[in-house]
Amino acid sequence: MSNQPTDKLPVALCQLDDLADPGSQGFVVQGRRIFAVRQGQRVFAYLNSCPHRGIPLEWVPDQFLDSSGRLIQCASHGALFLPETGECVAGPCSGDRLLPLPCRIEEGQVWLLPSP
Ligand code: FES
């Protein structure tokens, strides 16, 4: 069995309107924890694993953003990540990155795509 999260894709994640703006939501796709972040009309998806300790980022379900709604935040030690790139810009894993997962919005539907 592959441990890639993207074996049988594309997968319909949710409707764009299901996500607050800004907002975030966690999913389990093929047994892997991922999350999606909405910023305006754009959505970014990442594996839900902090590069600092390899553990899920959220303590509260679906809460992946900081209080500004503009940065992804790891609840454990406060690392902050850019939603657009997954780059850690503050915290113990500064300079590391979340693992991005390609996704696309098509007619209001958010799709998780196969990794290239
Ligand atoms: S586990 Fe995410 S900042 Fe430490």
From TrEMBL:
Signal peptide: none
Keyword annotations from UniProtKB, A to Z: 2Fe-2S, Dioxygenase, Iron, Iron-sulfur, Metal-binding, Oxidoreductase
InterPro entries to which the protein is assigned, alphabetical: Rieske_2Fe-2S (IPR017941), Rieske_2Fe-2S_sf (IPR036922)
Residue ranges of every copy of the Rieske domain listed in the record: 11-112
GO MF annotation, one: dioxygenase activity
Pfam families per the UniProt record, alphabetical: Rieske
CDD domains linked to this entry: Rieske
Record-linked PANTHER family: PTHR40261, RIESKE DOMAIN-CONTAINING PROTEIN
Protein name stated in the entry: Ferredoxin subunit of nitrite reductase or a ring-hydroxylating dioxygenase
Organism: Halopseudomonas bauzanensis
Top-level taxonomy: Bacteria, Pseudomonadati, Pseudomonadota, Gammaproteobacteria, Pseudomonadales
